[in-house]
Design goal:
The complex is a heterotrimer of chains A (315), B (452) and C (305). Chain A has helices at residues 3-16, 22-33, 41-64, 69-74, 86-132, 138-149, 157-166, 173-180, 184-197, 200-208, 213-241, 245-250, 259-269, 279-299, 301-312. With 315 residues, chain A is mainly α. Chain A has 2 domains: 1-49, no CATH class; 93-312, Orthogonal Bundle (MetI-like fold), CATH 1.10.3720. The radius of gyration of chain A is 24 Å and the shape is globular. In chain A, 54% of the residues are buried. Chain B is α/β, with parallel strands linked by helices and 452 residues long. In chain B, a hairpin with a 2-residue loop joins strand 9 (230-233) and strand 10. Chain C is an all-alpha fold and 305 residues long. Chain C has one domain (73-304): MetI-like fold (Orthogonal Bundle), CATH 1.10.3720. Chain C is built from 13 helices and 2 strands, in the order ααββααααααααααα. Chain C has helices spanning 8-13, 22-48, 65-71, 74-106, 113-121, 128-138, 145-153, 166-191, 195-203, 208-236, 240-245, 259-268, 273-304; strands at 51-54, 58-61. A two-stranded antiparallel ribbon of chain C has the order 1-2. Classes of the chains: A mainly alpha (315), B alpha/beta (452), C mainly alpha (305). At the A-C interface, helix 1, helix 2, helix 3, helix 5 and helix 6 of A face helix 1, helix 2, helix 4, helix 5 and helix 6 of C.
Chain lengths: 315, 452, 305
């Protein structure tokens, strides 16, 4: 690594102190740094332009979720129709076709909890292992992981499907959960995070005391890793929540669909003879789909931001 | 039934790799390869098998996206309490073919019954992925269905599915718009072009129809014009888009495209539904299944739309074509074929037909098409017009002799790569069709067909 | 990225630990699942790429034929050229915007810093399916936002879904989805710069621009490198946005619009699994090479700074 990086990481440590980890670094930074700066209206306005760009489509989604199917067609895209139908749409979304949306929501939760949770666990263990142990084949591990990520996943869909089919796993939750358990980005993040957040000295002394490695991991390392874990969990949460292509290939039974696939099937329904066009429910369903993610990010933002901070400092 | 096109993704069907191609029955009636034609005695046994299967009961899985089948399944289970039917919507059109081909390739998870559109059926038939139903007595159903759909499910003496619905074409037009600009309902394509010009001149925001290049629509139009670009005899395929029928279509349609007289809006998009409701898309030349879509998706158009016969190439002519429509087929790898056949017969020939018609579907059976109850039913959405009279008449006037490629699903998937250029650049439709032809020939040859 | 394992985290800590198999107990579970869902399908794809299956005539071993065919396949190279163009135009714009945002938010001179930070990041939480449907609607020249604007001002804006603009429109969607995500990676890197560096610089009378140039940008090099490499992989695998927009712009987005779409349509519409696998492998190799070269250059510049 370069001199610059060495310098940065040393600087980071000294600012944060030895025990508290990155969370403290961030707080320290803010407390010392920002209040003394002058706020700039001009800079705020310039940044606000960017903000409009990012929020405009979301505003469109929220506004159009308040319209009926007829209202969608007769009103200006960025303003409300004369009928305010948000609550009706939400009720319809949850009751349409025997309440299948609820089933999709529960499926998605299952995939997210088991898939993203499992992926975070595996990435944490593996990242920690890479950061704190030397073992044969270690150099190859990350090279292989990144190399595999570069191969377009869509083209691997058929081979993966055939393999899973032979194992009898298609059209079941396992076909979604097992591939979700691997998160190369999570591995990378945990690796860089663990290298910094868990002082090797502590591990050494634990070893001297005769503690077993897994004991050490759960008692000492895990608490230190928690901001990083929250970050990885959130990213895996997003990836699994938004998973679309894999379920498209693996699932045929709508009873196992996640929300993304369900919404797409509602959208496709408009292109079926005799099928009912329900764009209003597609839009409302889309809005309902992103709400839990947004809430999760808002509630947990202090954790994931500190986790990211530590991750990005080293590479 | 479905649109032949869901542009949504590039999903296409994936043919089984494992299939080894023997020719299925050729159109000259010669029976080749493994196509099963059993002696009459065996057939009787098979028919008994079907009854026995119903009595014995069991569970079958049906992959279909047609919404009216839900009620059919409920009725069927009520009538045969020992039978359990799992109705699964495994995707619409190409999505489902992909899933089906993947399942066939993997050799597991194959449904007992699958909905397959007419244009896609030859592909499954060629690979013997679907069962020849003559063994179960399907050949006795000759005359039950209108010729268009019936020919679409047959290949030589083999029958690969039972027609579920049909899409004889007609002209759906917005009468309010036509009246407003004093445009007469076009009887010929010449009239239609004149109407397109008049309408667009009167209101630059209004178009006679929409078109961004659609394989299903274009092939149906060529079909009506008397073109026969595809000639299929087993694995010998001829593709020729230079025939007089095709040229007749391109000469006329080119005027609409070049004159920017068709709205550049893709069918089935939200903009399309909106255009149908607000009068900016004034007509659709489309299959007879359209009323249910208008009623469900274009509520703003209620009372405005009417149905007229498809415009003709010659004044006083009576020629139409099929657009869309699908069959129910029994995959070769299905576990309970006798019971599967019992179900598709119930859905496509017996009580299921009426149930589906009540749900808004357009039948493929002659008896229903000719029944007064069907023909004389007024449609409030169409201002009380008895639209089935027009549609049923169209069903009887479908130009015979059309066939699709045994790899039409792939060919349709590259339609917009080639013919699509005519809609966004200076390429002509005829040149676009030539490019489509060349690409289809190349693919066919790569796949081992003998293609000219 | 591949040299990342030579970077501090692992190896710096390592010399203190005895080299043993213990680490595999931690890495093993991940790698086991990884082998099942990544390595096995890739191996199977490589196997497939050596064969050719015809609908009529069955499967034959063809050795490297499929690879030779890819190298002379005009459609593949047209797809590759398109994503390469996308890469050299969209990625710098997106990362530049992300950089500006990160610097602005880190500057402490904004009103409502945390509001900006979370708001800019929100699009990342929107599924690509939903994002593309939304933008697809807004791009509509007749009934979409573009159409509304045309009506409002009596103008005719160019059609974002026309063949000449479609790549730009897709670039916009991708930028929208990922600018906040990249901003966050860069911003996080800025947060751990030691404040005393800024203070010293300010005491020395350095301007803000000078501080950005001399302290912040060097501090961001590593994060920018990572963001760039992930963006290269993302660009080369472009799939969701164009394939969903295809329903609105069927003639502008071909079945060989990007290498990934090409591989997908070969496999799913064309049943050419073997050739599709070959396309995927060739594209994977190209991606790895380019990511590797970018990283080497990035490291070298870093060393020189």
């Amino acid at each position: 690594m370069t001199a610059t990086t060495e310098h940065r990481s040393r600087a980071g440590r000294s600012a944060g102190g030895s025990s508290g980890g990155p969370l403290v670094i961030r707080r320290g930074h803010r407390r010392l740094g920002h209040p003394r700066r002058r706020r700039s209206t001009l800079l705020t306005l310039l940044t606000a332009i960017m903000l409009i760009y990012t929020l405009l489509p979301l505003a469109w989604l929220a506004i159009n979720a308040t319209k009926t199917q007829t209202g969608l067609f007769r009103s200006f895209g960025l303003w409300f129709d004369r009928d305010f139908a948000l609550f009706g749409n939400i009720a319809d979304t949850f009751t349409y076709d025997g309440g299948i949306f609820t089933r999709w929501l529960l499926n998605t939760l299952l995939y997210v909890i088991v898939g993203a949770g499992g992926a975070t666990l595996l990435a944490t263990l593996a990242g920690y292992g890479l950061a704190k142990f030397d073992f044969p084949g270690k150099k190859a591990v990350f090279a292989i992981v990144i190399g595999a990520v570069a191969v377009p996943g869509t083209a691997l869909a058929v081979p993966t499907f055939l393999m899973f089919s032979n194992l009898g796993l298609t059209n079941s939750p396992w076909a979604i959960i097992i591939p979700s358990l691997v998160s190369p980005f999570g591995l990378y993040l945990m690796w860089t995070y663990a290298a910094d957040a868990v002082p090797t000295e502590i591990l050494e002394s634990a070893r001297v005391d005769g503690a077993r490695e897994f004991q050490t991991f759960f008692r000492i390392s895990l608490p230190l890793l928690s901001p990083g874990i929250v970050t990885v969990l959130l990213f895996n949460f997003v990836v699994t929540w938004n998973n679309y292509f894999l379920p498209l290939i693996m699932l045929k039974d709508p009873d196992w669909y996640p929300l993304t696939l369900g919404l797409k099937s509602w959208n496709a329904q408009a292109a079926t003879a005799g099928g009912e066009a329900i764009f209003n429910l597609v839009i409302t369903g889309s809005l309902l789909t992103i709400v839990p993610l947004v809430v999760a990010f808002l509630l947990l933002q202090r954790y994931w931001q500190s986790g990211l901070a530590a991750g990005s400092v080293k590479e | 039934m479905t649109m032949t096109r869901r542009h949504t993704l590039l999903l296409g069907a994936a043919l089984s790799m494992s299939l080894i191609a023997t020719a299925c029955g050729s159109s000259t009636g010669g029976d080749s390869g493994a196509a099963t034609t059993k002696p009459a005695g065996t057939q009787a046994n098979a028919a008994t098998d079907v009854d026995a299967a119903l009595n014995a009961g069991g569970t079958i899985t049906v992959w279909a996206w047609e919404p009216t089948l839900k009620q059919v399944v409920a009725d069927f289970q009520a009538k045969y309490p020992k039978v359990k039917v799992n109705l699964v919507n495994a995707g619409t059109g190409n999505d489902q073919y992909t899933a089906l081909q993947n399942a066939i390739k993997a050799g597991s998870g194959v449904p007992d019954v699958a909905q397959i559109e007419y244009y896609a059926l030859p592909q499954f038939a060629l690979s013997k992925s679907v069962t020849d139903l003559t063994a179960y007595g399907a050949d006795k159903l000759d005359g039950t269905f209108t010729p268009g759909p019936w020919n679409s499910v047959r290949s030589g003496s083999a029958i690969y599915g039972l027609p579920m619905d049909s899409g004889p074409m007609a002209l759906f037009y917005n009468k309010e718009v036509f009246d407003k600009y004093k445009i007469a309902v076009p009887a010929t394509w010449e009239d239609y072009i004149a109407a397109a010009k008049k309408l667009h001149a009167a209101d630059p925001k209004a178009y006679i129809t929409n078109d961004t290049g659609d394989a299903g629509f274009t092939t149906s139009m060529i079909w009506q014009a008397g073109g026969k670009p595809y000639q299929v005899d087993g694995t010998n395929v001829t593709i020729n888009f230079a025939d007089p029928g095709t040229q007749r279509f391109t000469a006329a349609w080119q005027q609409l495209v070049s004159g920017k007289l068709v709205a550049p809006i893709s069918s089935w998009s939200d903009a399309w539904y909106k255009g149908l409701g607000d009068g900016s898309i004034a007509t659709l030349v489309i299959g007879a299944w359209m009323p249910a879509n208008l009623e469900g998706g274009v509520k703003a158009g209620s009372g405005k739309w009417q149905v007229a016969p498809m415009p003709q190439w010659e004044a006083g002519g009576k020629a139409t074509a099929e657009n869309g429509g699908s069959s129910l087929a029994v995959p070769e790898l299905g576990a309970n074929k006798a019971l599967a056949y019992a179900f598709i017969k119930y859905a496509d020939v017996e009580q299921g037909v009426q149930t589906r018609m009540d749900g808004g579907a357009f039948p493929a059976t002659t008896a229903e098409l000719n029944s007064p109850a069907f023909k004389d039913k007024p449609f409030p959405y169409f201002g009380g017009q008895k639209v089935n009279q027009v549609l049923a008449e169209s069903a009887g006037e479908v130009v015979p002799g059309w066939s699709y490629l045994p790899y039409q699903v792939y060919a349709n998937s590259i339609f917009n790569d080639t013919v699509g250029k005519a809609y966004v650049s200076g390429t002509t439709l005829q040149d676009g069709l030539k490019a489509w032809q060349d690409a289809s020939v190349k693919y066919g040859q790569e796949q081992g067909f003998s293609v000219q | 990225m591949t040299t990342a394992q030579a970077s501090p985290p692992g190896l710096r800590a390592a010399p203190r630990t005895r080299r043993s198999w213990t680490g595999w107990r931690f890495v093993g579970p991940f790698m086991a699942v990884f082998a099942v869902v990544f390595l096995a399908p890739i191996a199977y794809s490589i196997y497939l790429s050596l064969f050719r299956t015809k609908l009529i005539g069955g499967t034959t071993f063809v050795g490297a034929d499929n690879y030779l065919k890819v190298l002379s396949d005009a459609q593949f190279w047209s797809a590759f050229g398109r994503v390469a163009l996308f890469l050299v135009v969209q990625v710098p714009i997106m990362l530049f915007l992300a950089l500006l945002l990160a610097l602005a938010i880190d500057s402490g001179r904004l009103y409502g810093t945390s509001f900006f930070r979370i708001s800019v990041f929100l699009p990342y939480a929107v599924p690509a399916v939903v994002a593309t449907l939304m933008w697809g609607f807004m791009y509509g020249t007749r009934f979409g936002l573009i159409g509304n604007l045309d009506d409002l001002f009596g103008i005719t804006l160019p059609d974002p879904l026309s063949p000449s603009l479609i790549l730009t429109s897709i670039g916009n969607i991708v930028t929208w989805e990922f600018v906040g995500y990249n901003m966050l990676i860069l911003y996080s890197a800025l947060r751990v710069v030691n404040l005393s560096l800024y203070e010293a610089a300010e005491i020395d009378g350095a301007s803000q621009l000078r501080i950005i140039w001399a302290i912040k940008l060097p501090a961001l090099r590593g994060a920018l490198l990572i963001a760039t490499i992930f963006s290269i992989i993302g660009s080369f695998q472009l799939f969701n946005e164009p394939s969903i927009l295809k329903s609105l712009a069927p003639n502008a987005i071909t079945t060989y619009f990007t290498p990934n779409i090409y591989a997908y349509s070969l496999s799913f519409a064309g049943q050419q699994f073997d050739y599709s696998a070959t396309v995927a492998i060739v594209m994977g190799v190209i991606t790895m090479i380019i990511a590797y070269v970018v990283q080497l250059r990035g490291m070298r510049k870093g060393a020189g700074a």
